[in-house]
Design a protein that fits this description.
The structure is a homotetramer of 437-residue chains. Chain A has 437 residues and is of the alpha+beta class. Chain A has 21 helices and nine strands. Chain A folds into three domains: 6-161, Butyryl-CoA Dehydrogenase, subunit A, domain 3; 165-297, Aminopeptidase; 304-430, Aminopeptidase (3-Layer(aba) Sandwich), CATH 3.40.630. The first copy, chain A, has helices at 6-22, 29-41, 43-62, 65-78, 83-95, 99-109, 112-120, 126-141, 148-161, 178-187, 195-202, 238-241, 274-288, 304-313, 322-329, 337-342, 344-356, 367-374, 390-396, 410-420, 427-432; strands at 168-171, 207-213, 223-230, 255-263, 294-297, 359-360, 363-364, 378-383, 400-404. In chain A, helix 2 (29-41) runs parallel beside helix 4 and helix 4 packs across helix 8 (126-141). Chains A and B meet through helix 3, helix 5, helix 6, helix 9 and strand 1 of A and helix 3, helix 5, helix 6, helix 9 and strand 1 of B.
Chain lengths: 437, 437, 437, 437
C-alpha cells in the first residue's frame, strides 16, 4: 500500500479533526487532551488505542501555543513517576539486590509518560506530532530546568525511534517530489536558497544532494547535505552557490565538496545524524563516481572573529605582535577590504591557531571544527577570501576552511581526537601555526 | 534508493562476512563478538559504529548455537548495570529526590546493554539479528530466571521499535514477491499450507490476506491473517481450506471470515500485533468492499476436550447428567463418530459453558477466546462438525466457534470484558448455556 | 529496473554524445546522419541496431536548426517509396488482384522511412527525438506541401505509438517530481502559471490535475487538465486562478470545473488525447469523490469578438437592431467597461447565437465549442464578466461559457452532433437565443 | 497510479463482463462482436470508444474457440480493403503519380481492420487480447493462405507496438511477484522447470534471469533468458539444472553461461526479441559484475541427429569412412552408451561439419546456430556428453555447443555472416572439421 505522503495524511487528519470537532459539547483542548491521555493509558486504550491516539494527534496539531504549553505542563506533572512507588522499589532493591527487585525498580523509574508517548505514536502522524511538541519544550526548558526530566524521556524515545537502522538514505534531485524540495528551501541553514531557480542550480548535474528520512515522516528530510563535484578542493563558496554558475569545464570531477549541511527538525535537537550522513555520502559517491578521490568540506568558521575580539580584549598574547594587537583592537578590520588585506598573513596565522589550538573543555572552540574533527576529518586548508558575503566577513573575515574526510584515516583521526585531544592537521595548515614565543 | 530486500541484503552481508573471515588470524566467535561490543561502546564506535555493527551482525548470523548462547551469557553478565553506581544513585535520590538525582538514578538503572543493542541496530540486518537472538534466549529463560532482566530490556527495545506507528500494513496476494509468499507457507500456524498450489488457492479472488511488516525486515511478515469472503458466516473450515474449493456461487459476498491468524517471529513473542491487525483489516475491507457487513472468525477451540477431561475427572458437576458423565469419562468419544454424534447436544452445551464461563485468574480458559474477547469480539455461534481434521477432533471434538467483530460494539465489549469480566454472547449461544441445577 | 527519467537519460545521452564527438574526423551532421540511417537499414543494423540508433538520436539532439531541416529533406527524398516498384506492384495487382499481389502492393506503398523510423525508435530517447523532429516539419509543411507524405507516415506511426492503450493516466499534485511540475508552468496554454507559488495554488487540496504520459517520455506530460472543486458551477475564472484564492467555505464540493486543458507536445499535433483525458478524469473523480455530481468546464470563447466584427461588417443582420449594429461597428466596445455594460443583453444574446448556430463546414465556428460539443458535452451557461483579463476582454468581451459533461448524455449528444449537427443546449442558453425576425 | 497488474485487470474485466452479460437479450458472441466492431469504427466509437473497446475485449476473452475462429473470419472478410476504391486509387496514381494520388493510394491499401485493431487496443487488455487472438490465426493460416493478409496487418501493428523502444528490461529473481514467476515455469521451453523448488534453484545467487516486458502486459514476460555464473565455460547442462546443485566453490565467477532462452507468447511469433535481450543482458552483467569477462551459451543442437540420418541415408559422403557409415546407418547409436562412446571422435567431427558447413538457403541448417551466428556469436566449443537427458541423446547424441558472444567481435561476425555467409569458429572447433577428401 506503499508510502503514504505526510501531507496527504495531514490533510486527512485535518478532515478527521473537523469531524471530531463537530461532535457536540467538548472540553477545552488541554482538558480534552488530558481525558484522551487517560483513556489511552486505561482499558479503553487497549480496545481502541489507535483511534484515541489519532484523535489526540489531531487535537495536538490544532492546539494554540498556549494550549500546547499547558499540555507539556500536564505531561510533566500528571504522568511523572510515582515517588512513593519509586521510593519503595529503591529501598527494596537496596535491601535485597535480586533480579526481582531490580525489575520492579526499573519499572518504577520509568514514568507512565513513556507508555503514553509510545501509545500516541501508534497514530499516523504521532511521531511528527511529538517531534513538533519538543520544539516549545526546548524553549521552555531554558527557564524551567525541572522540565529536563520530561525532555530526557522524550530524547530517550527519539534515540530509539530515530536509530540509524531506521533511517532511509535518499538522493535528492530534480526528480524528487516538490513537497520535499520545498523543505530544502525552508531548512537550508548555511547558505540560503533563494527560491526554485536557485534550488534547481543546487541540484544540477555537477551537484549531489542526499538526505536521511524516517519512515513515519516521509516528506520531511531530517538532515541533508549539499555536495559540489569539482576539480580540486574548492576554496571559495560564491562560485558554488552563484545561481548562474555553471560547471566551468568538461574535465571529469575528482573531488566532492560538502558545502552545506542542514539539520531540519528543531524537535530532534541532540539526536545526531550528521556523522552518519557524511560517511554514507562518501560511500555512495565512491560507488557512483569511482573517479572522485577527495572528499572535503568548504566550511564556515563561525566563531573566528568573536574569538579574536576576546583574545585582543585580554591584552598581549604570545602570538600577536604589538602592531597586530593595536590594529585588531580597533573595530571594523573584518569588513574593511583595505584593512583586511593588510592583515592577511596575521589572520591566516590566527585562524590556524584558532582552529587547531583554541579549545574549551578540551574540545575545539569552533562548533563546526568540533563537529568535523570529532567525525574523524582533518583540517586541510584555510582559504583567504573564501566567503565574501556580509555574514562571511562578519563572522570570519571572509576566511573559510576545508575539512578533509580521508576514508583511510577517519578512524585513526577520530581516536586520536577523542582519546588524546589530538587534531589532525595538514602540513600546509601546520606551517601557518604561530611559533610560540 | 527504495526498499532493499532482506534477502539481497543478507546475501550482501554473507559476502561481507566471507571477506571479514578471510582476514588473517582472528578470535573465536564469542570472544570476537565481545571485542566488537567493546569497540562499539567505546570511542571507536563513534567513528565507525556502523561498520563495527555490521561486522558484529555478520558474525552473529554465522554463529553456531553454542556460540550464540555464549553471546547471550556475555550480554547478561558483562553489560549489566553497575550495582555500585546504582546503589549510590538510589541512595542519593532517596536522600534528596530532586530532578538531578532522579536523572542520575534513571541512567544508573539502564544497563550498558541497552546502548549496545541500539548500536547493533545501526547495521543493516541489526534488527533482524536481534529478533533471531531472542529465540534461544526465550528457550534458555525457562530454566534460568536470571535472564529475565536481559529479556525485559530487549522487550523494552522491541516495544519501541515495533510500535504500531512503525508497522506497515500490506495486502498479500499473487502479486506479492515469492520471497514473502514462501514465508506464509513456512509460518502458517493454524491450518497448514501444503505448497504453492495450496497457497495460490488461499490467495484467490474470493480471499484476502493481510500482514504487518516492519521497515527493517522487508521480506518478513510479522503477523498475517487469512480471510475468506463468503455469503453468511461460515460454519466449517474444510470447505475453506480445500485446495480444490471454488467460490460456490456468483452471489456477492456479504461476510468476511478470518479463518487463520499466524504470528511469524518467535523472537517477537509478547509484542502483540493481532489486535491491531484485525481492526485494520476490518477497515480495509469496509473500504474495498462496502457490501461486506459482517466480520467474524472461524476459530478453533484448542482447550475444549482437555477441559472436559478435567471436569469429568473431578466427578459430578452441576451441568452434566450422570449418564453424560459416565459416557465422557470413557476415552475415545471425541474421535469416534457414532459416540460423538450421540453426544451432540451435550457437547454443544458444554462448549457454551467452556467458552462463556470457564475461567482462570478471571479470564477465559481458552487462549483463542481470551484473545478475541479481549479484543472486543463476541461469541456468535458454536459450530457442530466445524473441523473434522484429526487435530480438530482431538482438541475440540470437531467443534469450532465464530467470534464476531462488530465495529459498533468492539469498545463496549472490550470495556465490559476488562472491567467486569463480562463476556459478550449472542442469544443463540446463550440459549445453549446449561441451566444451573 | 524501474522507470528511468527522461532527464537522466538525456544527461546520459549528452555524455554519450560527447564521447562520440570526441572520436576523430567525422562527417558534417546531416551526412553523418545519412550514413547512420543507411547503416541502420542495412545489415549492420541487425547486429548493432540499438547502438546505431542511439548514436543517431544523440546526433539529432545536437543538430542545429539548419541541419535538422536538411535531415528532414533527406528523409523526404532519399527514403521515399520506390516509384518503379510501386508502379510494378500496382499494375500486378490490377491485373490479378490476389492475396499475393496485394501483399506486394502493400509493401511497395510503404516507404523505407517507416522501417527507418521504427529502428530509430529502438534507442532510448528515440520517440522523443522524433516528436521533436516533427515540430520543424510542421513549420516547413506550410510552404512545402510535398512534405505531407512524410508527415502522413510519421503521424501514422505516432497514432500507433501513442495509442490510448499505451498512455498512462496520472494525477499530478505537490508530490509529483519537480521535473514534471516545471513542465506544467512551461506548457500551460490557457491561463498562464506565474511560477512555483502560483503552481502550488493550482495543486491545492480543492484542486485536481491529471495528465497522460507515455512510457518512453516519462517526464513529459502529453496533455494535462486542471480542475477546481467547487459548490455549483463556477461562473468566473479570476477567483479560480487568483494565487491568493482559498477555498471559500468548508462545504463539501459538488462540482468539478475543468478550467484549463493544455496540449504539451507541438510535435504531436493532430494526435488527439483531450477527449480521452476528460472522460478518464470524470471517472477518476467519481471514484475518489462520490459527492461530485456535476462536471463542467469554464471555457474561453476565443472567436467571439472576431465573429461579431465579421457580422457587423457584413451589414444588417436579422438578430441585431440598428442601434446595436451602430454601436458594435464602433471599435472599442469590448474593452470599455461602460459601453460593454450597456451591451450586456445584446452580447449575451449574440454569444448564444455564436456558440449554437454560427458554423463553418457544418461545424461550430468556435474551436473550443467544436472540441467540447464533439466530445458529447452540452452548452450549459454563458457567463457575463467571466474573464476580465485583457485577453478575455479582447477575445470575448469578458464572456465565458460552461460546457457540461453529463456522463449519461455524452454518447447521445455526440451522436446527434456528429450525425445531424445538432448542438446540445441548456434551456437557459436556449432562452438567450435571438428570435429570428 | 502505477503499474496495474494484468491479473487484477483481467479480474476486473471479468466482473465487467458479467455485468454486460447480465444485460438482457443479446446476440450470439460473433454477431455481438460484429456489432461492437461496427460501433467502434462508426461515430459512436468517437464518443465512447474506450467503453466499446472494453466491451469487445471482455467478449473476446470469454469466447469459445469456435467463436474465436468465426471472429477471425469476420475480420478477414468484412474489414478488408475495398477493392473498388483500391483499384481507383491505383489507377489514379499510375495516371498521375503525385503526392495527392499517393496519399489516396496509401490510404486505400490500408484495410479498415487496421483502424479497428488500433481502436480495440484502447481498452485495458486490448493488446493482450490481440496477441492471444493471433494464436488460432497462426494455426488456421497453415491451411488457409488467404489469411496471410490479415496476419501481415496484425504483424505490422505488433512490430510497431512491440518496438524495442517500448520494451522494459527487468531482472527476475526471488523478489519477483509470483504471478510472473509462475509464467517462467509455464513457458520454459528448453530445460523444463519442475515446480517452485526447481525455479528457486534457477534464481539462486549464482544465477541471473532477465526478461523483456511490455507496458500493457505487465505480468507476462515476452522472452526470458536464464544465466549461470561459472568459473570457465560450462560444458554440461545437468550440473546447471540439477535442483540440488549448489555453487561448487567460492571462487568468484568469471563467465556468464546463457543456458536457456524462451519466447513466451506464441501470438508474437515472428516478432524477434532474442537478439536484443542477449545484448542487453551482456551489458547489464558487465555493469553489475565487472569480473565477468566471458559470455557464452550452452546450447542444444536440435537438428544434429536428424541431419546425420539424412547424410547417411544419402549414401557415401566425403567425410565419413565406410565403417562409420555402416555404424551410423544402424539405428540406436545415439542412445546406446557403448555405441555412442565408440563414435566419440566421429560425432565430434560430424558436429563441427554440421554446425559450420551444413546449410540450406545459404544459412546454417541448425536453427539455434542460425539464431546465435546471426546475432554475431561464434562457435566456441563442442561438448561431448553435454546433455545426457533423453531429449539430449535423441536430438544430438548428448552433444552440446557453446556459442560465444564477444562484445568486441559481434558486429564483425554478424557482417561477415550476413554478407559472405562466413561463420566465426574457434581454433578448437576448426581443428575438428573433417578434411575434405
Amino acid at each position: 500500500m506503499g508510502r503514504i505522503s505526510m501531507s496527504r495524511m495531514m490533510a486527512a487528519l485535518a478532515d478527521l479533526g473537523r469531524q471530531y470537532l463537530d461532535r457536540s459539547p467538548r472540553l477545552p483542548p488541554p482538558e480534552e487532551a488530558h481525558r484522551l491521555c487517560d483513556a489511552l493509558l486505561g482499558s479503553e486504550g487497549e480496545a481502541s488505542g489507535t483511534a484515541l491516539a489519532r484523535e489526540l494527534v489531531v487535537l495536538l496539531e490544532r492546539m494554540s501555543e498556549a494550549d500546547r504549553i499547558a499540555f507539556i505542563d500536564m505531561l510533566a506533572n500528571d504522568y511523572a513517576p510515582d515517588p512513593a512507588a519509586l521510593r519503595a522499589a529503591a529501598n527494596a532493591w537496596l535491601a535485597d539486590p535480586s533480579e526481582d527487585t531490580y525489575l520492579v525498580l526499573a519499572r518504577a523509574v520509568q514514568s507512565p509518560r513513556l507508555d503514553l508517548l509510545q501509545r500516541i505514536n501508534m497514530a499516523p502522524g504521532g511521531t511528527a506530532a511529538m517531534v513538533r511538541l519538543r520544539e516549545p519544550l526546548l524553549e521552555l526548558m531554558r527557564n524551567r530546568p525541572e522540565l529536563r526530566v520530561l525532555d530526557a524521556e522524550i530524547r530517550h524515545l527519539f534515540t530509539s525511534w530515530f536509530n540509524r537502522g531506521f533511517l532511509q538514505f535518499e538522493r535528492i534531485d530534480w526528480h524528487t517530489p516538490a513537497v520535499v524540495l520545498e523543505k530544502l528551501i525552508a531548512y537550508e541553514a548555511v547558505h540560503e536558497i533563494y527560491g526554485w531557480e536557485d534550488l534547481r542550480r543546487r541540484l544540477g548535474p555537477d551537484r549531489r544532494c542526499f538526505a536521511f528520512f524516517h519512515p513515519t515522516l516521509p516528506d520531511e528530510p531530517l538532515i541533508f547535505v549539499e555536495v559540489a563535484l569539482t576539480r580540486g578542493i574548492a576554496a571559495q563558496i560564491q562560485p558554488l552557490i552563484d545561481i548562474a554558475a555553471v560547471a566551468a569545464n568538461d574535465a571529469a570531477p575528482d573531488t566532492a565538496i560538502f558545502y552545506s549541511i542542514s539539520n531540519c527538525q528543531a524537535g530532534l535537537t541532540g539526536i545526531s545524524f550528521g556523522n552518519f550522513l557524511i560517511k554514507q555520502v562518501v560511500d555512495a559517491l565512491k560507488t557512483e563516481l569511482p573517479k572522485i578521490g577527495t572528499f572535503a568540506t568548504l566550511s564556515p568558521i563561525p566563531g573566528f572573529c568573536h574569538w579574536i575580539d576576546t583574545v585582543v580584549a585580554r591584552g598581549p598574547s604570545d602570538f600577536l605582535s604589538e602592531a597586530e594587537q593595536a590594529e585588531l583592537v580597533r573595530p571594523g578590520w573584518a569588513t574593511d577590504a583595505a584593512r583586511r588585506a593588510a592583515l592577511e598573513k596575521t589572520l591566516m596565522r590566527l585562524c590556524a591557531e584558532y582552529l587547531v589550538r583554541a579549545s574549551g573543555n578540551g574540545r575545539p572552540l569552533d562548533p563546526v571544527a568540533r563537529f568535523h574533527l570529532g567525525n574523524g576529518a582533518s583540517i586541510a586548508r584555510i582559504n583567504w577570501e573564501g566567503d565574501l558575503s556580509d555574514k562571511g566577513l562578519r563572522q570570519s573575515a571572509g576566511l573559510m576552511v576545508n575539512y578533509r574526510y580521508d576514508p583511510d584515516e577517519i578512524v585513526a583521526n577520530h581516536e586520536a581526537f577523542v582519546k588524546d585531544g589530538r587534531v589532525a592537521v595538514s602540513a600546509q595548515v601546520r606551517s601557518l601555526l604561530p611559533r610560540r614565543r
